[in-house]
Design brief:
This protein is of the alpha/beta class. The protein is built from 6 helices and 13 strands.
Length: 259
């Protein structure tokens, strides 16, 4: 059992709809990553930016960006995760991919599609809530707009929730607030990774990637708007101790979630 988990978050600009150029930039960033780490987290649609041009940039599960994630998991000895546009059975998905030791271990298709950008007209929603088991940690993957829907992420069985996003600067206060809320209500660690810069539609992003503890406390710098790596070490013992001393879930409401 790995009771401590070292995580690395990359907050970066994304070149609009240019997977090859983005992967080259990520290669440079990875060359500056202080190793070893256990988990590396990259933003939503990490190789294209948040585009609805799915037909023009989608890949399959054997595409260069997926293979790049697998390769980096070998090179770093870490689990590497990000989302990208995947085409499968003539449908498009905003797919969170988790790579370990050169293999895709699991994936999660974004459930809540951002209708204000017509994402629900371009992509198909996910229908499952997968659990990632990694070094005895139970991890919940989520993507961007999912953050606004607490029932979808409500569970006391996860130790860590990961949210990857292209969350605009105009609504960053919601990002900051909801990441803390998800940590507090689920008494777990929460990672939020957002991009910076301006996308091909002129939308600005200012990061604020962060790691929060189970009390909602910031474990990394708050309101960070710089390019680069953000690291933190998480403790399973500390989490278990806090949950034992403050067992909120014993008084929680019961409900069934229909998917």
């Amino acid at each position: 059992m790995t009771k401590e988990l070292k995580v690395a978050l990359l907050q970066n600009e994304i070149v609009w709809e240019d997977s090859l150029q983005n992967l080259t930039k990520y290669d440079t960033a990875f060359s500056h990553l202080a190793k070893p780490v256990d988990i590396i987290v990259l933003p939503e649609m990490f190789n294209t930016g948040f585009t609805m041009n799915a037909a023009g940039v989608a890949q399959n599960m054997d595409g260069n960006a997926v293979n790049w994630l697998k390769q980096k998991s070998v090179e770093t000895g870490a689990a590497v995760c990000a989302s990208l546009i995947i085409e499968e059975n003539k449908k498009y998905y905003n797919r969170f991919i988790w790579a370990e030791s050169g293999e895709i271990i699991t994936w999660y298709d974004k459930r809540h599609l951002f209708r204000m950008a017509d994402e629900h007209h371009t992509f198909s929603p996910g229908t499952t809530r997968p659990e990632i088991n990694y070094k005895s940690w139970r991890i919940m993957p989520r993507v961007c707009y999912d953050l606004r829907f607490p029932v979808w992420s409500r569970s006391n069985k996860f130790d860590l929730q990961i949210y990857i996003a292209n969350w605009p600067e105009a609504r960053v206060t919601a990002w900051d607030t909801l990441l803390g809320a998800r940590a507090i209500e689920n008494q777990c660690y929460v990672i939020g990774v957002n991009r910076i810069g301006t996308d091909g539609k002129g939308i600005s992003y200012n990061g604020h990637s962060i790691v929060r503890g189970p009390k909602g406390e910031a474990l990394t710098t708050e309101n960070n708007e710089s390019t680069g790596w953000i690291t933190a070490t998480l403790s399973l013992d500390s989490l278990a101790d806090y949950r034992a001393k403050f067992p909120v879930f014993m008084d929680s409401d019961r409900f069934d979630l229909e998917v």
